[in-house]
Amino acid sequence: xxxxxxxxxxxxxxxxxxxxxxxxxxxxxxxxxxxxxxxxxxxxxxxxxxxx
Length: 52
What we know:
By secondary structure, this protein is mainly alpha-helical. The protein has a domain at 24-52. It is 96% helix and 0% strand. The protein has one helix spanning 2-51. The longest helix is centred in the middle third of the chain and has 50 residues, at 2-51.
């Protein structure tokens, strides 16, 4: 019976690690998307100033 407890604990730790890793990737992707949008706006502003 104690072997099943260790198996369950290991399984839980692994899935918690996978969840945290995916969460970290999601947050990094969101930050990169925001930075990309900001850079696009800056480029558009510079293009508009050049055309004037």
